[in-house]
Amino acid sequence: xxxxxxxxxxxxxxxxxxxxxxxxxxxxxxxxxxxxxxxxxxxxxxxxxxxxxxxxxxxxxxxxxxxxxxxxxxxxxxxxxxxxxxxxxxxxxxxxxxxxxxxxxxxxxxxxxxxxxxxxxxxxxxxxxxxxxxxxxxxxxxxxxxxxxxxxxxxxxxxxxxxxxxxxxxxxxxxxxxxxxxxxxxxxxxxxxxxxxxxxxxxxxxxxxxxxxxxxxxxxxxxxxxxxxxxxxxxxxxxxxxxxxxxxxxxxxxxxxxxxxxxxxxxxxxxxxxxxxxxxxxxxxxxxxxxxxxxxxxxxxxxxxxxxxxxxxxxxxxxxxxxxxxxxxxxxxxxxxxxxxxxxxxxxxxxxxxxxxxxxxxxxxxxxxxxxxxxxxxxxxxxxxxxxxxxxxxxxxxxxxxxxxxxxxxxxxxxxxxxxxxxxxxxx
Length: 428
Ligand SMILES: Cc1ncc(COP(=O)(O)O)c(C=O)c1O
Ligand SMILES: [Zn+2]
Fold this sequence. Notes:
This protein is of the alpha/beta class. The protein has 16 helices and 13 strands. The chain folds into 2 domains: 13-74 and 126-229, Rossmann fold; 97-124 and 233-408, 3-Layer(aba) Sandwich (Rossmann fold). The strands form 3 sheets. A 6-stranded mixed sheet has the order 4-5-13-10-11-12, sandwiched between helices. It has a 4-stranded parallel sheet with strand order 8-7-6-9. Helix 4 (127-141) crosses helix 5, helix 9 crosses helix 10 and helix 13 (346-360) crosses helix 14. The longest helix has 16 residues, at 260-275. The structure holds pyridoxal-5'-phosphate (PLP) and zinc ion (ZN). Residues 24, 26-27, 29, 39, 41-42, 44 line the site of zinc ion.
């Protein structure tokens, strides 16, 4: 199904804004914008190709700055219609970029250190960004049920977005996730199915469901809508640069599950350079995993191009994808930009969650513990330059992974309601 022409359908052209086609990341073949995710010739993954507005960076910058305080300010760079902000959505994004001076001191960073805190999204993770774009595509393709395979956060984001936009939802998760994730995935009233298996089993099941009459007419945000879904992560790159005053950071530390987010942040940064919205200078991308699910960092450190699947065993359940779809692309990006992929133990994840909370007042989920822990390790190992401008991502909220810190976090004392008792506790 090669793309016929960009103007072949004016309705769909308007629905997808500047997007003109899907293109294969392996062989470059182009296809019409549709609910497809794999190349018909080589089975490579498809991504959205654009005809982006060029030639007037100052005008584009002004247009963006005059837009709403959410991801829709970047509509001119996304596969969405120009009036997307008027359609019902959770309107995620424009989360805080926190200048983390106290964390910087603890880590020995002498340059600028920032934490992009995506726990501030409507369902408390970065997944609201990717879902918002996928919902828009689902609307255009006429799907009425939204679905996904999820390590937890995505299920909640799909449930909430479906509720807001008036879709039915049915989402799939491994049966043994944290209570906070399960409740968040169920509370919005859609169907939630726990599968006896890990995420890779859930994902395989969803791929089968797509090909079955039982899944007909369903939009799986991270399967048949994956090319659109992925584009939502570009908004992290846009926001970081805009919030730095239209500057590229020198180094970014990003968590990896499937690797989609990392690859699309790189895509977003490259677009900003091409459009002249930021200066053209090098940046380094670092990937972060938990040791108990580290297929990409293992391949990186071994110098391999192929990512060998692992069976996950870590408290960082949101990142527990043993067979990451975008793993090889992550390796390419880390190597091309001069970055690295590193992992930390569960104990280091917990320590890093507490370090971030204690220094910056940000309570991260385990994925944020992974990025902060990896940042510390990369500095200690001399791989991340502490004198440069660094952005570390916190992609989710600690309230959803209380179990990770609860065993080692609690009241300093339990006392009787008397001053004597308080003094006895030694806290005065
Ligand atoms: C909180 C959080 N951070 C990061 C990720 C990684 O996302 P990706 O699959 O795009 O690598 C996930 C994935 O579920 C997540 O839930
Ligand atoms: Zn191909």
